[in-house]
Amino acid sequence: MKVDSLDLQIIRILQKDGRRTFAEIGRELNVPAGVVQGRFAKMKHKGLIVNSALIINPSKIGILHSASVVIEARESEVEEVKRYVEGLKVGNALIEAWTVFGRYNISVAVWLRNIEEIFKIKEMIKVHPAVVNVDVSLTKNFQFIAKIENEKILERSEIWIK
Fold first, then answer.
1. Would you list the DSSP string of 100-133?
2. What is the DSSP letter of 91?
3. Which end of the chain has the smaller Cβ count within 10 Å, N or C?
4. Nearest to residue 153, comparing CAs of 73, 59, 77?
5. What is the arithmetic mean of pLDDT over 33-62?
6. Residue 16 is part of a domain; what is its CATH number?
7. Are residues 41 and 19 located together in one domain of the fold?
8. How are beta strands 65-73 and 131-139 bridged, if at all?
9. Rounded Cα distance, 18 and 33, in Å
């Protein structure tokens, strides 16, 4: 898809504030709202704009930590290990896993209230007989942008807010 300067301006405005109306954007760019709406629809139809999503601030519901976990599992048991990891219950930790290619064949994102929970999760993963190696990286600053993550956070928010 060919993107021109007007498309880029529309994208930049919406990246700063996705709640802006087509009319507001049109006034700012001196073009009719219908032009903005048409450009937006075209960019969405062509796949340039994938989604318009609400991004929540996880710290407001007590999620203060995130961790990236990579797992090397026996190739024949990757899917079983992935299901095992996603089924782990440690405190209120939210766990999402994906199969990947490379030395590590499972990548896991974990969001937690208590940093100690990640060490429990790592130990629970290590004891699985098909797991060869587990590495963990911690971070404190993160944002939720994937729709599935937002949905899971909202499902758990009643638990976390208490």
1. -SSS--EEEEEEES-THHHHHHHHHHHTSTTEEE
2. T
3. C
4. 59
5. 85
6. 1.10.10.10
7. yes
8. antiparallel
9. 15
